[in-house]
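User: These chains co-purify. Model them together.
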Amino acid sequence: MTIQSEGHTVKRFDGELNDLHYRIIEMGGLALSQLRDALQAIKTKDVALARKIGQRENELDLLEVETDAAIVELIARRCPLGGDLRTIMAVSKGVTDLERIGDEAARVANIALQIYGNDTSNPNERLLHDVHVMGQMAVDALEKALNAFDRSDEEMAREIIADHRAFEDEFEGSLRRLITYIMEDSRNIGFAVNTVLAIKALERVGAHAQNLAEYVIFQVKGKDVRHQGP
Amino acid sequence: MKARERMPEASFNREYSQTVGEITSPNSRIVCRNVNVYYGDKHAIQDVSLDIGRNEVIALIGPSGCGKSTFIRCLNRMNDTIPGCRVTGKILLDGQDIYDGSLDVVPLRAQVGMVFQKPNPFPKSIFENVAYGPRIHGLVSSKAELEEVVETSLRRAGLWDEIKDYLHQPGTSLSGGQQQRLCIARAIAVNPEVILMDEPCSALDPIATAKIEQLIDELRSHYTIAIVTHSMQQAARVSQRTAYFHLGRLIEVGETAQIFTNPRHQLTEDYITGRFG
Amino acid sequence: MNEICEVSGQSSGRTIDVVHASLIRRRRAEKRFRLYGLVSIVLGLCFVAILFASIIARGYTAFQQTSIGLDVYFDPELIDPEGRRDPVTLMEGDYDRLLKNTLSSMFPDVKARQEKGALYRLLSSAASYDLRDQVLANPELIGKIVRVWVPADDDIDMFVKGQLPRTGAEGERRIKDLQVAWIDKLEAEGRIEKSFNTAFFTSGDSREPELAGIWGAVMGSLFTLLVTLSLSLPIGMAAAIYLEEFAPRNRWTDFIEVNINNLAAVPSIVFGLLGLAVFINFFGLPRSSPLVGGLVLSLMTLPVIIIAGRSALKAVPPSVREAALGVGASSMQTVFHHVLPLAVPGMMTGAIIGMARALGESAPLLMIGMVAFIVDIPRGVLEPATVLPVQIYLWADSPERAFVERTSAAIIVLLVFLIFMNGLAVYIRKRFERRW
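Assistant: Joint model of the three components:
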């Protein structure tokens, strides 16, 4: 967010915009920690941690609702224009993406529960390797996006968008690898489907992180860079 | 760049005081180049160059005393009435220099009508208010024709249905919003090509304002309209292009949506987001 | 921010006390000021009331004239010896003798010459003209005895109205005991009557108070004002409009403005001297004429009309001008269609007040000879005339007792005109002033 050297004539407006900014950063932090915990749960086979994620999911939803209400109020009362308008639009959209990220994190946690919850045979560790790699990439992307959002850093946002290609490549590579595993041993099928779902969820997280980066660019430059080829 | 190539005279090729945005219009009716206005020693407008297109509503915004009113008053030479006011530069209306010494201001003002900040109907009847312009310019030859012009103008101004039974009541007996629409009817009765509006809604309530804004939108298909306003929301609502003035300079001009969502000049951004002014 | 809040919060209790304390003082000051205003208004009204009361008390009797009823025998020997009822002959009849004979027959014991003279002086010297006019109008009277009412002499008039003493040392009285006795006798016979003094309103000036009237002065004033109005109104309005609406603002117009304001303050006698030097001595216009008087008063009224006109034009809101210019009216159309109609009531008010001033002006007219004793009623602007205030001045100077009340009566007439004119000004302002 651009904090102008010179604040608004109406000081309260500054306060409200700051408040909005902290809300989205808080949401981002929460979504990030959810995602980390979900990955952690898969990594450490921690069923309890996975369960906790499902419970905290509500917190994120609540934050989304509150932030949306704050945005509506801000628009109604302040009639924001220019940079303020773009900031608010970016926040408004970012909130949705963060909530989705939270959903995806919960989905990953659910998969962890399915994998480790019922006492079937231990899964093939190699299969989960891709989940770890993609998880780390998604976490990195999200962290970077949140940083970019926090500092309205257009450069960083552009890096995220550029990095996203590598992320997509990794996703496609993972899928291909999983297919080979399935073909190798049909007992892996049930496990592999879960893995596919997990990496698909992580791919979505990456896409949402990219969206966040695009909003940052819109906020700073006023340019909509969505749905454009790299 | 393209704009500069179109300039008819070499003197126009001066630097345009760093105005941001496209000052030209694809279908321009009024062309202003390097307009400077002085009130005595005060340099009220500095090097303003701006085009106003056909069927376009251009909004002029900016902090108080930035010269936007002065600027539109140049367009029909209302500044002539102010002692000590001097205008340099070129203002062309359909290619004709309006500050040419040989040009008579009377037909100019018939071509470029004006609506003022405070509704100022003549202290005469509603009918007389509207009929005055056509009558002095000899636009009508018979009483029936005059009545028709009055009716059309009042209809166009969206006032006819409200006042058709009170045509001979004094214009000052109307409400503020009605008075302002009467003034608009009076301006369009002489069939101008351009209508200048100097904060036409600043004295009106929101409903009267909405009616005027609706009217401006309807009038757009017939006229070129330049409106000075202090309300950014109003500028955003009624105009296609917006020009931002600051301390006598034209800082930025562009599509209204662009100015209000993504102004390019820091001063414009600060003004529209309420960081000064 | 917080500090300010605290400070104001702390002191809020005390503030209201301080306000209350000062309130009493403020209210008292306000009351005192109102009282001063009231007192000055009452004082002013008192003076006006005293002025009016004294003038009316002194002047109202002049609207009545004492006449004496005589049974005149229209002796054909004296007035129509040829018996042809020829108007020329009738004009030259000895009506004086008719009256004297009548009086002698009424008071047969009066024999001495001096006493006879006193007896005849009961009647106005114009009484014989009255008889003549009656005979000329109605020749049937000749040879008959008819009761005729003729005006009494001014002293008798005064005496009957109770303004001359009845008692006291005879030598100091204008009416001697003998005359008192005659008057008492006439009164007892019902031969003395007071009636409305039409002569006062229909005749010109005269050396005889009972014959003197203000009509000549009224006509003189009328002609003078006519000249003044027809000159100063168009010139004044044109000047005001030009200066206010068209003239460029520069050193010249400033200079002119200053001079107009100065002219308004110049003592009016100076205008009289100017008129004498320019209009009479240089242009050779007839002395004492309403034309010259009107010219001089025009000079005096012009600045007033110009100043009033300019302020009336200034009071027209600029939005009206803008509106007119905005639809493409030329400057001339703007002024004449929109500005002037709004300014005219104010201009007219100024003009009428200027006229009222001109009507009440005497000093400059003294200078141009309008102070002459003029009996004839003027019939044009070139004939010698006098005006009401000058007539008042003349009468106030006359020694006869009866002129005192006539002076006051003339003042009443002048005041009525002035009140009427000022009332008209107020009416015009109220009636035609338009709101915008």
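Chains C and A do not touch (no CB pair under 8 Å).
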